[in-house]
Design a protein that fits this description.
Helix content: 55-70%
Oligomer: single chain
Strand content: under 5%
Number of domains: 1
Radius of gyration: 18 Å
Largest sheet: none
């Protein structure tokens, strides 16, 4: 059975929409940190600030043309940034569920106010979109593209 991968355009769209969703995850946490006084909650406040910083940084990397970097950096930057973005969004969602269930670092979240619903939607969208972007990347047997400066064959020796 052959698995059909999304087209290049779908993958590119998923990449950029995933970057926007990931940035939204970070901004949602920044708003909670600043406007809803999460900044004063021990440990949780720091985690919300770190969530914003990591989501913003990874969203910028996902949106940038990092595949044009030379060598191994160009081949690994985007998949690693996408995987990191999926990790940030997934961990945020998991932490929310844990904080609602029994508490996280002494903090318990209650109810589904609009900010939490938006955060959940952005986290799920980030995981789905960046996952689709990774799936759309070339398969191991495909020929690399010269379009992004990736060589057809690696040089063999000095």
């Amino acid at each position: 059975m052959t698995v059909r991968r999304p087209s290049h355009r779908v993958g590119l769209g998923a990449r950029y929409l995933g970057a926007v969703a990931l940035l939204g995850v970070g901004v949602a946490h920044l708003v909670e940190y600043a406007d809803d006084s999460y900044s004063v909650i021990p440990t949780i406040g720091t985690l919300f600030a770190l969530n914003f910083a990591s989501a913003a940084l990874l969203a910028c990397v996902v949106a940038a043309p990092v595949e044009r970097l030379p060598g191994l950096a160009g081949r690994l930057a985007l998949p690693l940034a996408c995987a990191g973005g999926i990790g940030v969004a997934g961990a945020s969602l998991a932490a929310l569920l844990v904080s609602e269930g029994g508490g996280l670092f002494g903090f318990t979240e209650t109810g589904y106010r609009p900010a939490i619903v938006l955060s959940i939607a952005l986290e799920v969208a980030t995981v789905v979109l960046l996952g689709a972007s990774l799936m759309a990347r070339r398969a191991p047997g495909d020929r690399p593209s010269r379009r992004y400066g990736v060589p057809e064959r690696l040089p063999s020796g000095p």
